[in-house]
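Try this one yourself first.
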């Protein structure tokens, strides 16, 4: 079994890759930075002796890079990589899209289209959502925050767009009679300071003992995506998240409700994404 993990060289993506490798899965780290990818592979092989792991060049801020990704057949892809900007200045991808929306959503939408002939029958497309998306509201007249840019709002909208895309993909896969699955996973509350050391990739700072009561490390945040990618009890159209208030603990499926249940909005996100990227995932 082979799984591509975007952003697999750091953060939650690294722990997704590590846990998959521990389960005997061959992992491919999608990364735009060769040096960082090599460090992640070294750490991964130290943690999991005999791990089958490699990396593929992938820059989600550049649609040409996305369309040209060089990977073989896949049994799953975990659409994990993402950016969350802090500064007040609006930034754009190489293709002129707002950075959060362009990387987190449009890049992964285009990647799904690029991989459609390499995702094997029964393959899973796992989209990494976010707890933050639950409070987001899309503005279809300004999806890329050109009029009123707020970094937090732009991030939340990008994660809601991702989740709606994944659920619309599920509807389209079922309508086409495809055996492939589209599943959403989210990490809950995953903090660096609760994350175990993986030097030099990650070194934990000051411990937050009180935070540990309600939150978890990025290793815990990786578990829903791993379950979605390889779990035997996973079904297309599900959302998997942590068991305890959606913030920490073992993965479990969550109800698809609120903004996630808006099929009309999901169809509009899909149509806008096709227009903005010039590609469309089509499976049979």
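Now uncover the answer:
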């Amino acid at each position: 079994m082979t799984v591509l993990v975007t952003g697999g060289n750091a953060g939650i993506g690294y722990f997704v890759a590590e846990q998959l490798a521990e389960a005997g899965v061959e992992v491919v780290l999608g990364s735009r930075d060769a040096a960082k990818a090599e460090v992640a592979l070294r750490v991964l092989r130290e943690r999991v002796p005999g791990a089958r792991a490699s990396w593929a060049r992938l820059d989600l801020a550049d649609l040409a890079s996305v369309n040209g990704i060089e990977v073989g057949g896949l049994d799953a892809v975990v659409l994990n990589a993402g950016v969350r900007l802090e500064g007040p200045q609006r930034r754009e991808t190489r293709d002129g899209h707002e950075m959060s929306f362009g990387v987190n959503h449009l890049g992964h939408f285009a990647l799904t289209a690029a991989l459609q002939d390499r995702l094997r029958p029964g393959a899973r497309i796992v989209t990494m959502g976010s707890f933050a998306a639950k409070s987001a509201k899309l503005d279809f007249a300004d999806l890329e925050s050109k009029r009123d840019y707020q970094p937090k709002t732009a991030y939340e909208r990008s994660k809601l767009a991702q989740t709606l895309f994944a659920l619309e993909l599920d509807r389209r896969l079922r309508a086409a009679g495809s055996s492939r699955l589209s599943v959403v996973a989210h990490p809950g509350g995953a903090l660096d300071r609760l994350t175990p050391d993986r030097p030099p990739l990650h070194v934990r700072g000051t411990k937050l003992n009180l935070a540990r009561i309600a939150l978890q490390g990025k290793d815990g945040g990786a578990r829903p995506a791993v379950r979605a990618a390889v779990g035997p009890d996973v079904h297309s159209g599900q959302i998997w998240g942590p068991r305890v208030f959606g913030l920490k603990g073992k993965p479990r499926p969550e109800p698809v409700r609120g903004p996630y249940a808006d099929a009309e909005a999901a169809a509009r996100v899909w149509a806008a994404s096709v227009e903005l990227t010039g590609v469309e995932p089509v499976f049979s």
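Discussion: The mean pLDDT is 94. The CA atoms of residues 152 and 254 lie 24 Å apart.
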